[in-house]
Amino acid sequence: MGLWQWVLDNWALVWTYLYVGIDVVLRLISLVVVPRNRRPGSALAWLLAIMVLPIVGFPLFLLLGRSQLPKRRLAKQKAVNRLLRVRAHEIPDSELDEDAPSWLQSAVQLNRELGAFPLTGKNSAELEIDYESSIARMAEDIRTARESVHVLFYIMGLDEVTEDFFEALAERADAGVTVRVLYDHWGAVSHRAVYRAMRQKLDAHGIQHAPMMPIRLFRDGAFQRPDLRNHRKMVIVDGEIGWMGSQNLIAAHYDKPANIRRGLHWQETMARFRGPIVSELNLLFASDWYYESDEMLDEQTLVRPSPDTSGTYECQLVPSGPGFVAENNLLLFNQLFYSATRRIVAVSPYFVPDESMLSALITAARRGVEVELFVSEIGDQFLVFHAQRSYYSTLLDAGVKIWLYRAPTILHAKHVTIDDSVSVIGSSNMDMRSFLLQMECSLMVGGTDFMEKMREVEDTYRSRSRQLTREEWESRPRTMQVIDNLCRLASSVV
Predict the structure, then answer these.
(1) Can you tell me the distance from the alpha carbon of 471 to that of 454, in angstroms, rounded to the nearest whole number?
(2) Backbone dihedral region of 23: left (phi > 0), alpha (psi from -120 to 50 degrees) or beta?
(3) Share of the chain above pLDDT 70, in %
(4) Which of 91, 174, 244, 352 has its CA 20 to 30 A from that of 34?
(5) Residue 426 CA: distances (Å) to CA of 124, 272, 356, 384
(6) Sequence-separated (6 or more) residues with CB below 8 Å from residue 137
């Protein structure tokens, strides 16, 4: 009783010693725990945050410091990877064109080792950069479905732009076609009204649907950080027609009043494929479906000989995400950047590279490769927008041309072209979130005909952009420089 009374009488002193003790213990623990299997830049950023304010920084590290999937979900990923590798082992890579550069074969081998998918030939592809036209064309394809429709988007909502898309799904479901829909939990639920309308529509027609990566902190056998997301965008019809790219299934202003007031809207690039590559997209969808529903779809219904093999493009699917051992998308980009001999054009709305990617681009520019980077003039995410601006000086010094897509449009497209040889299109940004925390889908495409289509898209974007000059950049306010650099430091905390 005397000890308790002493504590009550000297509570300020007790709390001071207790706070100092916890402060010291957390600092010491962080020195051991934080650097483990982590990039030096990320480790230093976390350690700085913890050392400045351990009581806040260490709990944040526990919440957001691990990019691994929970135990049971990781076991599912490993099971799917094994199945994909068994299937890939039985399918030889398609032969590259005779005029393909020698380094492209090594890129194909790298991708197969990382994601298991083989290179497929005899594919055809079209590009669509008009926002509402791509949604209308996807709906048109869905109405041709005889057996199955598989839909996966990071953000989905039922509004005036997407209404016909959901009506097409409902029509096919009512006709007996199997329709499966996946949407990222946070990406969709954060748009509440259109999310609720979508779910009601799907339920009313008996359409199977599930949220991806539901935000439940303790799920699948272990703690799961809430910002691990599924960022893929795909539509597959009968295993014969496949859509993928950067676009979400929502109005171009994302149904946000603030965006509407500012006139803000998103610019995207989507690709429509026919040929053997569609089966690979179907397999990737099936892996995500298995994660969320525990239903393993029959491979024979997913992978079938394509009825259309009239195309001339070689395509290879490269999935990535926290369930893979390596950052598949980052390794692919770096491999291509170091292989380029003449030209690199990169389009990314969020450009926050790690040290290896920045070095690859700067090295390419300094050895005489023409490097162009397309980003938006304005941003929709404060931290990422200012973090990416912190890299502009280094890039300009190396000779990289930076094109700013004019406001009030957000250039959300994500694609890369290398020389006249290969293109990559998909959902992956060039930032640490896409490399480490998000499930992404990238597609490498070979063929000069497809490259010509990509060049047309790049020319269109160039006509809507202005080039950032060294003089303009050096004259920006000093306060902006400070904000950019601080955001760059914060962006390393992943």
Answers:
(1) 30
(2) alpha
(3) 90
(4) 352
(5) 16, 11, 21, 20
(6) 128, 272
Taking the CA atoms of residue 169, residue 171, residue 173 and residue 179 in that order, the dihedral angle to the nearest 10 degrees is -20
SS3 227: coil
> DSSP labels for 307-331?
S-----EEEEEEEESTTSSS-HHHH
DSSP tag of 154: S
pLDDT digits (tens, 9 = 90+) for 113-155: 887 788 898 999 999 999 999 999 999 999 999 999 999 999 9
Q: Which residues of 284-307 are buried (b: 16+ CB within 10 A; e: fewer)?
A: bbbbbbbbbeeeebeeeebbeebe
Written as one letter, the residue type at 250 is: I
Ordered DSSP codes for 234-251: EEEETTTEEEEES--BS-
pLDDT digits (tens, 9 = 90+) for 158-185: 999 999 999 999 999 999 999 999 999 9
Contact 349, 264 (CB under 8 A): no
Dihedral pair phi/psi, residue 180, rounded to 5°:
-125, 135
- Contacts of residue 458, Cβ cutoff 8 Å, sequence gap at least 6: 345, 347, 372, 374, 417
- Rounded Cα distance between 232 and 493, Å, is 23
Confidence of residue 71 (pLDDT cuts 50, 70, 90): confident
Residue 108: pLDDT band (50, 70, 90) is confident
Q: What angle do CA 43, 45, 49 make, to 5 degrees?
A: 115
Rounded distance between C-alpha atoms, residue 74 and residue 147, angstroms: 31
Q: Which of 303-317, 324-338, 467-481 has the lowest mean pLDDT?
A: 303-317
Where residue 7 falls among pLDDT bands split at 50, 70, 90?
low
Q: How many residues does the chain have?
A: 494
Token code pair at residue 130: 């008009």
Q: Which residues pair with 152 in a beta bridge?
A: 182, 234
Could you tell me the CA-to-CA distances from 337 to 31, 91, 102, 342, 371 in Å, in that order? 35, 28, 15, 10, 10
Structure tokens at 276: 């053997």
Q: What is the DSSP letter of 342?
A: S
User: In the 8-state DSSP scheme, what is residue 494?
Assistant: -
Gap between the Cα atoms of 436 and 178, Å rounded: 33
DSSP per-residue string spanning 258-312: HHHHHT-EEE--EEEEESTHHHHHHHHHHHHHHHHH-----HHHH----S-----
Residues 6+ apart with CB under 8 A from 417: 343, 344, 345, 423, 424, 451, 454, 455, 458
390 with 488: CB under 8 angstroms? yes
Helix (H) or strand (E) holding 475: none
Tokens read off for 227? 């910002």
